[in-house]
Amino acid sequence: MANKKNLLIALLTAGISAMAQEKKDGLITLQLGANDTMHTVTAQVNDLATKAPLKGVEITFYVQRTFGVMKVGNGTTDTTGVITAEFPLSIPAGDTLGNLIALAKVEDNAVINDTIFRATIKTKLSFPAHTPVKAGLISSTPPLWLQLVFWLVVAMVWGSFAYALYLVYRIKASASKKIFINQ
Question: Is 106 within 8 Å of 112 (Cβ atoms)?
Answer without folding.
Answer: yes
